[in-house]
């Protein structure tokens, strides 16, 4: 099991625990090498527990798709291509999210199914996760760039942002668990995956458009993450291009 370290910090009147997790990701199939990547997370105070008889997976693709495309296109002089619903990704995400729900979310962290099906993955944990909360939290990692173009260097602290804005990703599917005690899990899968080491998420022209829309250091937040809910934006996946 990967080690998890928690450090409480205070945000306003609420305490948030910042989690640092590590997970192994696949390198080349020939070498079987694994590369570690960190998971950054933020969790707020615990809320009410969901009723156990409601354990199931809920397809959130349509709602999350609209929010992704809002960030990717709205008011941008040079917009990114819109994502489309991927039926294959829907099947993949619904199957493993249903399994996790039936197990009361005993398994946490990234799935193995996304990598097995060559898909990128963003994960958000909350007592009641929503597309609004998840997508806003992922996008707001843009603030860590301080107006600087992300370029081709991998930075785990903005991995959710770069995946959801990855120019070459075209397909999306999202689902969440319901009825888990404590944290429920919201996954979005991207096809083809983003976050390739040595590749930029988008062009500098797109970045200039984003900065113009959002401001040099701010983000266009659709919905802030509530400090009254348990919320975790777990680390995004890193894919490695092997020559």
From TrEMBL:
<dbReference type="GO" id="GO:0005576">
    <property type="term" value="C:extracellular region"/>
</dbReference>
<protein>
    <submittedName>
        <fullName>SCP family extracellular subfamily protein</fullName>
    </submittedName>
</protein>
<keyword id="KW-0472">Membrane</keyword>
<keyword id="KW-1133">Transmembrane helix</keyword>
<keyword id="KW-0732">Signal</keyword>
<dbReference type="InterPro" id="IPR018244">
    <property type="entry name" value="Allrgn_V5/Tpx1_CS"/>
</dbReference>
<feature type="signal peptide">
    <location>
        <begin position="1"/>
        <end position="29"/>
    </location>
</feature>
<dbReference type="InterPro" id="IPR035940">
    <property type="entry name" value="CAP_sf"/>
</dbReference>
<feature type="transmembrane region" description="Helical">
    <location>
        <begin position="219"/>
        <end position="242"/>
    </location>
</feature>
<feature type="domain" description="SCP">
    <location>
        <begin position="59"/>
        <end position="198"/>
    </location>
</feature>
<dbReference type="InterPro" id="IPR001283">
    <property type="entry name" value="CRISP-related"/>
</dbReference>
<dbReference type="Pfam" id="PF00188">
    <property type="entry name" value="CAP"/>
</dbReference>
<dbReference type="InterPro" id="IPR014044">
    <property type="entry name" value="CAP_dom"/>
</dbReference>
<keyword id="KW-0812">Transmembrane</keyword>
């Amino acid at each position: 099991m990967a080690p998890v370290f928690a450090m409480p910090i205070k945000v306003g009147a609420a305490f948030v625990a910042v989690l640092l997790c590590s997970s192994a990701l696949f390198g080349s199939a020939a070498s079987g090498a694994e590369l570690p990547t960190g998971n950054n997370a933020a969790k707020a105070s615990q809320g009410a527990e969901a009723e156990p008889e409601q354990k199931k997976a809920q397809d959130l693709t349509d709602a999350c798709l609209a929010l992704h495309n809002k960030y990717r296109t709205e008011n941008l002089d040079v917009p990114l291509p819109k994502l489309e619903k991927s039926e294959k990704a829907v099947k993949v995400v619904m199957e493993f999210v249903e399994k996790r729900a039936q197990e009361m979310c005993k398994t946490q962290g990234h799935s193995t199914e996304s990598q097995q099906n060559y898909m990128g993955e963003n994960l958000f944990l909350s007592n009641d996760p929503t597309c609004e909360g998840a997508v806003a939290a992922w996008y707001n990692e843009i603030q860590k760039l301080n107006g600087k173009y992300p370029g081709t260097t991998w930075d785990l602290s903005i991995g959710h942002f770069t995946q959801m804005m990855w120019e070459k990703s075209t397909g999306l599917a999202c689902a969440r668990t319901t009825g888990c005690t404590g944290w429920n899990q919201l996954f979005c899968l991207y096809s083809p995956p983003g976050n390739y080491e040595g590749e930029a998420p988008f062009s500098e022209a797109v970045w200039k458009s984003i900065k113009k829309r959002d401001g040099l250091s701010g983000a266009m937040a659709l919905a802030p993450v509530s400090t009254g809910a348990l919320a975790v934006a777990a680390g995004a996946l890193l894919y490695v291009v092997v020559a």
